[in-house]
Amino acid sequence: MNQKGFVNILLIVLVVAVVAIGGYFVFSKRSIQPGPTTSPVATPAQKLSEPVGKWAIISVEENDIQVVSEGSGAIIEFLNNGTYKTSGGCNKMSISSYTTSDSRISFKVSGSLRKCANNIVEFWDLAKVYSYGLNDKILLLRYRTDYGVEGIFKLQES
User: Fold this and answer.
1) Which CATH code of 2.40.128.270, 3.40.50.620, 2.60.120.280, 3.20.20.10 fits the domain covering 53-157?
2) Is residue 17 classed as helix, strand or coil in its secondary structure?
3) pLDDT digits (tens, 9 = 90+) for 9-64
4) Other C-beta atoms within 10 Å of 42: how many?
């Protein structure tokens, strides 16, 4: 075989090998990229169009640690007109509004803010709620603080 033909064949084999190796790395990196992160709480089985009614807080968790147990008699009442009112808890809250869309909920919070003692519901965290869900008459309000703490208000229909 002449040398010029051998060099051409070797060059073609080399180019195919480089393309194959490059393609392998591109496709293998795509397949191992992580998907979107999910909340540690199970996705609710049923979506709630409007959380109208009275809901008693039964617990509050932050980073999977229960910080409020039995809710200390705190209640959130969602009214038909897109407003809510709270009772119990340590902060005096004004009647404020909320909006929902699919499993998203947004609260407007107003009232007088003060530091709460341990095991007392802190309603100011409602302003940080980003999603909600309903499962067996339990309403879950998921929130994230400015410091990256993940929390869940767990409420029961009353």
Assistant:
1) 2.40.128.270
2) helix
3) 888 888 888 888 877 766 665 444 444 333 344 343 344 456 788 988 888 888 98
4) 10
